[in-house]
Amino acid sequence: MRLEEEFSHCDEEEQPEPMSQCSIGAFQQQQQKVVVVGYALTSKKIKSFLQPKFEGLARNKGILFVAIDQNRPLSDQGPFDIVLHKLTGKEWRQILEDYRQTHPEVTVLDPPDAIQHLHNRQSMLQCVSDMNLSNSYGKVGVPRQLVIKKDASSITDAVNKAGLILPLVAKPLVADGSAKSHELSLAYDQYSLQKLEPPLVLQEFVNHGGVLFKVYIVGEAIKVVRRFSLPDVTKRELSKIKGVFRFPRVSCAAASADDADLDPSVAELPPRPLLERLAKELRRRLGLRLFNLDIIREHGTRDHFYVIDINYFPGYGKMPGYEHIFTDFFLSLVQSRSRNDRARNLLKA
C-alpha cells in the first residue's frame, strides 16, 4: 500500500562541485537573483541532507549552499539570505542570537531559544496538551506522562501516586538528537521500574496497531509517511511478561510501512485537515518551521490520535520529495521577506 504522492524529477540532475564563499560572486554574475543559504550542520546531517541531487536542483533554481566556518565570526561571513543550523551548545546559541539581532534581514531557521524548548521531553509536548485539539476530523492529545529526574527507587511510588497504567514507555528526558536520546524502554511491571535510569519521562503505552505516522513539517508544507512501531500489548501478555525491554531507535527509514500490507484501519493516514490545523497551531506556539511529529492512532478508534514526540530538523533526507519541498520553501521565504520589505518602505514613504 502506498499513499505517498509522487514527485517528478529531471532525468539528469546537475552534480555540483563543492562551492566556497569566494565563489559566490562568480555565481551571482550568472544568476539574476541568488538565494544564499549558509549552513552550520554536523557532518552526519550534511551527508544526509545536502545530497548531490538536492544541491543540483537547488542550484538550478538559483539557491546556493555555503558552509559556515565556525572558527570565524558569523557576521564576517556571507552575505546570507537564510541561515540553516542544527548545532548544540550555549556558545553557539548565543552567537546565533547575537547574529539575529544584528542581521534582521537574514532568516535564521530557526530561533535557537525556540529549538531548545524541544530538547526537553518535559516541555516538548506541553503545547499539544495545552491545545486540546478536537474537531469533526478527530482529537489530538498526548499520552499521560510522568517526569523522573533522579532516584530510581522512588519511581514505583511516583507511578502509583500519578495513577499511570502499565506498561510504560521510558524515554530519556533530554532529546538532543543524539542516538542515546532516541533509545527507549518498555517496562511491563512495577518491580522493573526500579531498573530504569533517570532522568527520564514515563509515558503510558497506547496500543496503536504497531504503526506510527511521521508528520514532516517544512514551513506550511506537510508530508506524512508510515513507520513500523512497537507492537500492541495484550492483557494476557501484560500478565505474563515481566521486566524492562530496551529498544534502539524505533521509527527509522528501514522500518518504512508505506508498502506493507496493513489493515486499512491501521494504515489510514490521519485526516489532512486535522494535521493542517495541528501543524499551523504548533508553528505558532513553538515558533518553529522545521520539525516533525511522531503521531499514533489509538487502536480500535478511527479518530483518536496522540503526539508522542516532536523533533527539530529531523532526517528530511528520508522524506520523499524533500528536494522540491525545500527549494520551494527557501524561495518562498525570500519572496515573503521581499514583500514585507517593500511594504515597510511604502509605509515609510
UniProtKB/TrEMBL annotation:
<keyword id="KW-0479">Metal-binding</keyword>
<feature type="domain" description="ATP-grasp">
    <location>
        <begin position="134"/>
        <end position="338"/>
    </location>
</feature>
<keyword id="KW-0460">Magnesium</keyword>
<keyword id="KW-0067">ATP-binding</keyword>
<keyword id="KW-0808">Transferase</keyword>
<protein>
    <recommendedName>
        <fullName>Inositol-tetrakisphosphate 1-kinase</fullName>
        <ecNumber>2.7.1.134</ecNumber>
    </recommendedName>
</protein>
<dbReference type="InterPro" id="IPR040464">
    <property type="entry name" value="InsP(3)kin_ATP-grasp"/>
</dbReference>
<dbReference type="InterPro" id="IPR041429">
    <property type="entry name" value="ITPK1_N"/>
</dbReference>
<comment type="similarity">
    <text>Belongs to the ITPK1 family.</text>
</comment>
<keyword id="KW-0547">Nucleotide-binding</keyword>
<dbReference type="Pfam" id="PF17927">
    <property type="entry name" value="Ins134_P3_kin_N"/>
</dbReference>
<comment type="subunit">
    <text>Monomer.</text>
</comment>
<dbReference type="InterPro" id="IPR011761">
    <property type="entry name" value="ATP-grasp"/>
</dbReference>
<keyword id="KW-0418">Kinase</keyword>
<comment type="function">
    <text>Kinase that can phosphorylate various inositol polyphosphate such as Ins(3,4,5,6)P4 or Ins(1,3,4)P3.</text>
</comment>
<dbReference type="InterPro" id="IPR008656">
    <property type="entry name" value="Inositol_tetrakis-P_1-kinase"/>
</dbReference>
<dbReference type="Pfam" id="PF05770">
    <property type="entry name" value="Ins134_P3_kin"/>
</dbReference>
